[in-house]
Every structure is written in C-alpha cells, then in structure tokens.
Design a protein that fits this description.
The complex is a heterodimer of chains A (322) and B (517). With 322 residues, chain A is mainly alpha-helical. Helix content of chain A is 74%, strand content 2%. Classes of the chains: A mainly alpha (322), B alpha+beta (517). The interface between A and B is large, with 68 and 70 residues.
C-alpha cells in the first residue's frame, strides 16, 4: 500500500515535470507579451529594454530552468498584466472554483445515484423511462447551451435567480471567500452549479442504473430477497455498494476536472473562479498565470486520483495494491 | 420500497422549498451602481497598462495633472493652470490642499516621482515612451506649487496626454512591493479602492475627503462580462445598471427591451487597411491603391457586417483629434473606374494579395476581412485570407512584413501627430517611428511633412500642418484605406432613473453618473 503510494507520487513528479516543460514550451510561441507590455507607443529600443528586464531575451532552456528553480520555491513569478504575484491571484480565485465544483458534485452525486437507484428498480415505468431519456440530454447537450438555457428560463423569463456573479461573500481565513453562508451567495450558486453538474449527473445516473441492473440479477441478491431481508438492506447494503465502484471512479476522476475545467460555466456566469482567470489570462497573453494554473491543476488532479485509488481499497476489499 | 419513494419525494419537496425561499431578490441600494464592461481592468498599477479599459477604471481612483470632461475638453485636474513656456518647457500651477486616500498630502515631489516612474520598464510602466520624453520636473523659483516639466524633444501633444498620466503617492509607492501596488491603488481621485478580484469585479466607494465635489453615487462596482448572452440577461433583468458595448449581433434584442434605454455615439476607433508600397509590389502604383479603395463597398460592410452599427470613415483620426480634416470624403464605390484603373496600371486581370487581420480584436474583424476579399474579387484581385488571434497578429505587424492588413486605431491623447508616428511613417528603429506600420509603408513626402509639423510650436499652425499631412496621406498617397469608425454603444436599465452621458474616450467615470432627483 505505502509502496504503491510512493510509486504513484514519483510518477506524479515526472508527470509534473513533463507538463511544465510542454506548457512552458508551447507558450513561448504564443504571442509576444513584450509588444503590449512596453505600451502602444513604445520605440523598438524601449521594447528591447522590457524584454531584457523580463528575461525574455535569454534562450529558452535558461528561461525554463529559472522558472523551475523559482517554481520549486513556490514562486511562479509576477503576472505580466496584473503585475502581482501569480500564485496569490490563483489561490485567491480557487475557493470559488472549489465551491462551485463541490456543489456541482453534490448535486450530481445525490440526484445521479438517487435517481439511478430508483430507475433501476423499475426500469419499465413510464416516468423512469422519461428520466433515462432526459439523462441523454444531460450527456449530449454542451455546457454553454445548458447554461444559457438556464439563464434565459430562470433568470430572464421567470426572474427567480440572478444571472451572473457570486453574490454576497464572506471572508474566512485570509483570501478564502465563501458564498455558502449567505442567502444571496446560495442564490447565485444554484444555476452555475446545476450547469456544471448536469453532465456528471447524467453520467452517474446512467452508470448507477447500469451497475444496479447487473447486480440485482446476481444470485446473492436473490438469496437476500429470499431470506426476507428488508428492501433497504438489500438495495443499499448488498446491491448499491457493489454497483458503486465504477461510479466512484468516475466521480473521483471528474471532481478534479470539475475544478480545473469549469472554464465554460465560469465564463457564462461570470463566476469569479480560477477558470475565469485562466480565460482572461489567455486573452491577455499572460503566460505566467497560464503556466502556473496548469501546474496547480495538474497537482490537484494527481492528488484526487491518488485519493480515489486509496478509496477503492475501502469500498472493495477485493482490490489489492501490489 | 414505498418508504424509499416517499423519502425521495420529501427530499425533493424540501429542496424545492429551500429554493423558493432563496429566490426573493435583494434590491440594490439607491446610492450604488453596477456597470458591466467588455474587457476587465488588468492591473491596479495606474502606469501598468495603457489600454482604455484600464485607464477608464484608474480615472476614478487617480487623477492626472489635467482632466478631460465628458465632451473630451481638456481642463484643470491636479494642476489648476498650465502653459507651454517654450518648445521644451511646460509650466503648471498645482492644486493646494489635495490629499491621497492614505492621508498623505499631494506635493510637487509626487508629480516628479510619478513622471520618473514612467521610465521604469516591466513590471512598472507601459508608458515608457512618455517617460522617455520627459526630461525633468522642477519647481520654479523655489515655489513648491509651480513646476516646470521639461521634455527631451519638442512634444506638441504633451498637455493633451496629461489626463491619463496619473499621479501616485511617492511615500506609499516606494514603501510597498510591486505586487501590493498592482492590487491596492492609492490615489487622489473621487473614489477609493475597496476590493478587486482580477477578471471578475472591482468595488469602489466615494472618497469623502475629495478636494472637489464628492460624487452622489457612493458605491460603484465594475463587472466584466464577456459572454454576449449573459450580458443581455444581466441588463434586461437590471442586475447591472449600465452595460458598455452592446454586442452587435444582439443589438436589436437589447434595443427592443422596454426596460432598457440604448445610447449610441460614433466611436473614436477607426478601422482601416494598411497596404505595402514597396517597389515592384502591385500596390506601389497609386492607380492600384485607388482601384482597391474604389472597389471596397463600405456601405455594404456597414449594413451587412456591422448591422448598421458603424460610421464610414474617410481618414484615420476622429473629429475631436488635432489633425482631423472635415473636408475629406471617402472615394465613392465604383467598380467600373476601379477596373479601368487596374487595366491602366497593367493589371487588367487583377493580381493575388494576402490580407492579414486579427479575429478577436475589433468588432467583427474577421468578417470584415472576408467581405473585403469578396468585394475585391469583383475586380479580379484574388485575396488570400489570413485572419488569426491578436496575440499572433500583432507580433507580425511589429515585423513590418505584411502586404495588406486590417487594423484599428484611436489615439488617447487626441493628436494625429502622435498617431502617425506609429502608423504610417517610414520604419525607423532609432527614432522609434513606424512601430505599427505592418507593411513597411514608406513615403518621403509624408515623413517630411511630419518633421515640419513637429517643429511648429504654435498649436493652430501645427494643427493646419497636421491636417495637410492627413489630407496628403489620404487623398494624394492613399497611404491607407480607411473603412469605418466603430460605434460606442451603451444600454442603461431604466428602472432606477440613472442619468448617464457616454464619454468620447469610453471611460466610465462614476462622478459623471447620477440618479435623477
């Protein structure tokens, strides 16, 4: 078990190195930040001065090693555009993304697994077939369309909910702002969380249903029914627990992605999260933010995957780590 | 089984109840306002960005020595009066009794410090050129309220630019880190900084110790919203009070909403086509340049591509700019004449040319390029389209190797003399000329006229010279093919009785916005 974790960590570090290199390499060829940073009216001599000051006149490999050296100390440099430390900018935004991802995941888990179980018990009921058909929309509709539809229905036509933003937030601990504890914050959370969670919800629903249908046919379930166990125990303890393994894998893998790639949802709802920051940075050719963001989300996804792997062992003792 | 279903039904009901209690809106206070803009402010360092979206925000927190009113007229700011003593010296009388937001007094040393700060390259200043031409800031006869600013060369537009050179507090700027300055601005302006989440929102509140009239709107928020449908939703539901830049595709929908008032005005930015004139290149012949101009149907572009939201341009500067010539007219669309000119020039069957342009910089930029390609095809000119993201396009402009390119321009200092240096003068690295002259256009007549204009001290005579330069460039040389001025558009939510007049420079200054009494 520990050996396995150590192996995974070493692999993780190699992956991070590769990611940083590729990322750093690609952005060398994506626009020249000096042109904007010297100002519209700058002369060539002034542009050169800026380039030297930024260290962009040095060969690529030296730039990369300087970057690595600083990154190891947790210093990702200054944002070209904001002229503020990159790490602070990203960390300030991360809570918003994490809150959105957690809410979306909760919605997806509760509704996805819950509905999945209901549907699997009586697959032929009209209402259950209807839910299954609906889940197809969840899987196939692109996020931006779902987001815009939800805004148009609930914000513009019905005027129930706000159209964008995070509403009122409370500061807890440093720059960690939360919208969980204000009514306004929760109201602002509903539409983006549903938008972001819709795809996961549909996927988890279908996975749960598939797993449940399979497990419910097993002999041990028939035995459980036969010996007169209450339905609660048969369904949740014997059936669901066994059907849950692919669901947990999927949910775990996607949680990291929800945080890292909520860019579309964040830009539609103008959600002040890290994805939104990334999009702004791409637009402004702000390379330090882009590189740091990719690095941080890579670390995040690697960690989530590791946790999922460990959780397996607890859900299904049959899985062993050699 | 039944129990399970009932539990789920109850859960659904409860969550429904929670949702409905959450749904009651919270009305915004009478003294606060929320403005949605298209591009977010980039930094809180007032010298760290020369883009309009940033200067617009900084103009609320900071002040320059001078100030431009809604109409674009230059007036007193932190200086109460100013004059040009000789061609290298500008004299200012400073305002007394002004305090920075941190309580420090505004002194001439802050002015000196701020101008010197402009000279520091990354990570401080995007206004290096202006820092570079400033030689010294000194008091006159020891009076700390009268200063002389000397320039290294004759800079006729010096005062014209001072509304956007913001004055910072020397003490707090020196004692804080670059990152801190980039996030927590301290100025003298009518609004104080409250909170900024980059790319998401900026909150401001009035500076109760402001030397002038304290604005009536107490709390101001600026939110960038980029997604067009969200912008539409935000203004029609009143979640924002003013929306800057209505997306042209959704213009009719916004204008048709009874809750919203739409305000438009001709924008300052002109879109034009740059064209190479290197010997041997077809367009080095003035007849070819004229033919291309004649073959472009600008009316059609405005109507079909811009949905009517643009104004035809016959030159690059806009009316309030020094050097604008109202007598210039666009060459009328004329295919026959274009064809015969091409035949005369020896290209009866046209020629091939590559049109480069950005696809994420100006309103419908890539579509304009496509339209031009189709229109030029009618006279036999085969256009190869090459549109790309601005992050790749502008470095290419900087290399001066393009044949034919689409670009937009407006000058924040309202001076064509300053613009033409960048746009149409022959590339001269030493002097810093031709930075945005993407096709390496070069004409000795224009270069000479410009040098003559730079030596003139008298503003009226200089303006005449710049007009002549402009007219020569447009009529005689067709140095560029002007297309149109973009339209500035704003949507104002009617419910709250907001009085708002858009500024020529598109800045949003909250002191100029009020609620109807």
């Amino acid at each position: 078990m520990y050996k396995c974790i150590i192996t995974r960590l070493t692999q993780g570090i190699v992956i991070l190195l590769v990611v940083s290199f590729v990322c750093f390499g690609i952005f060398q060829f994506f626009g020249d930040p000096v042109l904007t940073l010297a100002g519209r009216y700058a002369t060539q001599a002034q542009q050169k001065e800026v380039r030297i000051k930024m260290g962009l006149d040095k060969p690529f490999y030296i730039q990369y090693f300087v970057f690595l050296k600083n990154a190891l100390r947790g210093d990702f440099g200054l944002s070209y555009v904001a002229q503020a430390p990159v790490l602070g900018l990203i960390l300030e935004r991360l809570p918003a993304s994490i809150e959105l991802a957690i809410s979306a995941m909760l919605i997806a888990l509760i509704l996805g697994i819950g509905l999945g179980v209901i549907v699997s018990l009586n697959p032929r009921y009209f209402i259950n077939r209807f839910i299954m058909a609906g889940s197809l929309f969840g899987v196939s509709l692109p996020t931006f369309l779902i987001g815009i539809l939800l805004i148009m229905i609930f914000a513009v036509k019905l005027r129930f909910l706000p159209t964008f933003g995070r509403g009122e937030v409370i500061k807890i601990a440093g720059n960690w702002r939360t919208g969980f504890f204000t009514i306004d914050g929760l109201r602002h959370l509903i539409l983006p969380a549903f938008t972001l969670g819709m795809y996961q919800l549909a996927v988890l629903l279908r996975l749960t249903r598939g797993g449940m249908l399979e497990v419910l046919r097993e002999d041990y379930i028939r035995t459980a029914w036969a010996k007169g166990l209450p339905p609660k125990i048969v369904i949740f303890k014997h059936a669901l627990r066994n059907a849950l393994i692919p669901v947990v894998t999927m949910a775990g893998l996607q949680f990291g992605e929800l945080i890292a790639f909520s860019i579309v949802t964040e830009s539609i709802f103008q959600w002040p999260g890290a994805g939104n920051l990334l999009l702004t940075a791409v637009y402004e050719t702000d390379h330090p933010i882009i590189v740091a963001y990719v690095m941080i989300t890579s670390i995040l996804i690697l960690c989530v995957n590791l946790v999922v792997d460990i959780l397996y062992g607890y859900i299904n003792p049959k899985i062993r780590y050699e | 089984m039944k129990r399970l279903t009932s539990i789920i039904v109850i859960l659904l009901l409860v969550s429904g109840l929670i949702m409905t209690t959450l749904i009651n809106g919270i009305a915004a206070g009478k003294d606060s306002i929320n403005v949605a803009v298209g591009s977010p402010p980039q930094t809180m360092n007032p010298h760290g960005s020369d883009s309009d979206c940033n200067l617009s925000v900084m103009g609320n927190i900071f002040e320059g020595l001078l100030y431009r009113d809604v109409a674009g007229e230059l007036g007193p700011g932190l200086a109460t009066s100013w004059e040009r003593v000789n061609d290298l010296t500008w004299r200012f009388t400073l305002r007394k009794g002004v305090k920075f937001h941190n309580g420090n007094d505004f002194t001439w040393e802050d002015v000196k410090f701020s101008f010197e700060r402009l000279k520091e390259p990354f990570p401080v200043s995007e206004m290096l050129d202006f820092g570079g031409i400033t030689k010294s800031v000194e008091t006159v006869n020891g009076d700390p309220w009268t200063i002389d600013i000397k320039t290294t060369i004759s800079v006729p537009y010096f005062a014209q630019n001072l509304h956007q050179i913001f004055i910072m507090d020397e003490e707090s700027t020196k004692s804080r880190s670059v990152g801190e300055i980039g996030q927590n601005p301290i100025g003298t302006g009518p609004y104080k900084f409250v909170e900024w989440v980059k790319g998401s929102y900026l909150k401001l509140t009035t500076n109760e110790n402001y030397w002038g009239e304290v604005p009536s709107i107490k709390n101001a928020e600026i939110t960038p919203i980029t997604e067009p449908s969200t912008r539409l939703a935000a203004i029609t539901t009143g979640q924002v009070d003013i929306l800057q830049d209505i997306p042209v595709e959704l213009f009719e929908t916004v204008a048709g909403d009874s809750n919203v008032e739409v305000i438009t005005r001709p924008g300052r930015r002109a879109i034009y086509l740059g064209l190479k004139n290197e010997p041997g290149f077809p367009a080095s012949d003035i007849r070819v340049r004229k033919a291309m101009y004649l073959a472009i149907n600008e009316e059609e572009i405005i109507e079909k591509i811009m949905f009517g939201h643009a104004f035809p341009a016959a030159q690059i500067p806009d009316p309030p700019t020094v050097g604008y010539d109202p007598s210039l007219k666009r060459l009328p669309y004329n295919l026959e004449e274009a064809k015969s000119l091409l035949a005369e020039a020896g290209y009866p069957d046209g020629f091939k040319i590559k049109l480069t342009g950005p696809n994420d910089r100006y309103v419908r930029d890539a579509q304009i390029c496509e339209a031009i390609a189709k229109q030029l095809a009618k006279v036999g000119i085969e256009v190869e389209l090459d549109t790309k993201p601005k992050a790749i396009f502008f470095p290419e402009v900087d290399e001066h190797k393009l044949d034919f390119y689409l670009i937009g321009w407006f000058d924040g200092s309202y001076d064509f003399g300053r613009s033409i240096i960048q746009l149409l003068l022959s590339v001269n690295e030493e002097k810093g000329y031709g930075g945005l002259n993407g096709a390496n256009y070069s004409d000795p007549t224009l270069d000479k006229l410009f040098e003559e204009s730079a030596e003139i001290v008298d503003p009226a005579k200089r303006a005449e010279k710049l007009k002549l330069l402009n007219r020569t460039a447009m009529e005689e040389k067709i140095a560029a093919i002007p297309l149109h001025y973009q339209e500035d558009s704003y949507a104002v939510y009617k419910g709250r009785g907001i009085e708002f007049t858009p500024r020529a420079d598109t800045w949003i200054l909250f002191r100029e916005i009020s609620f109807k009494k």
